[in-house]
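Why does residue order matter? Because the sequence determines the fold. Keep that principle in mind as you read this record.
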Amino acid sequence: MPSQYSGVTGQLHGIVSGLANRVSGHAGPLRRLLSPLYGRALQFMSGDRGITATINGETFRIDPRFRAALPAQYEPELLHVLRERLRPGGCLFDIGANLGIWVLHAARLTGPSGRIVAFEPNPSTADILRTHLRMNGIEQQVRVEPLAVGVRSGAGRLFGAVAGAGTSRLGEANRDAPAEHMAVDVTVTTLDEYCQASGSEPSVVLIDVEGFEQDVLAWGARTIGAQPDVTVVVEMHPTLWGVDGAGRMQRLLDQLGRTAVCISGQANALSEYGQVLLEPLTASHSPHKEINDVRTDGARALPRHEDR
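Structure:
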């Protein structure tokens, strides 16, 4: 199998990986101990330029400390949707952008005339995201918003302050997370309020918010439900939805005029984890009269920060 990395880094990585495989399994304790040290060594060697890595067939520069979270193949089904729906000059909203894997791909797809808004409330992760923008020369094309997107504007608490933690979520620690999370205070907005205040009109919206999918959708009804030309992809986390979560999600989608289509191999869009494409039911469906119902039935209120 060809290396994900090229040049001297690729050669070194091949040698180090070969030695590591001899003395420890892929997830062995020695490998887990040495991997961060190896990442720091690569960071020192590459300076502030990062290392060259191939992700989904595209070459980017990345921070080597986070190479494990940016593998050679990553959610190819979602990339297929982006290549079909995101055009030059388009606007992508990436809600829960994390380290920026989709931001990097979207910058190539939309071109210099495109616009990308990356919502990443985790301060340490947002710093790495900005580093990746700089390394790839796309700072002017991407706006990083250090905001969580939820049910109302205000203050919130995010659990998962470790840089690159893909299981960060508002309100409480993610019970699906493999390790204990730290907490950090963040600013929360809603999708509709942000679009109204900024004048933004996204053509593609990606949502990965670890169980708060219904909150983002319900309080983004004007942006999403009334615009059949807007492509919406959501990473579903049914185990985090609570009682009658699937039923509430189905009612919300009905009121938004959208239907969930599995794209990552799962059998059921509303009961299994995975990526889904929210396709419009009909072009004539207008959810404006139902927005209050959507927000009452589809989203749960997030406790105010001062009440916690």
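The CA atoms of residues 250 and 270 lie 8 Å apart.
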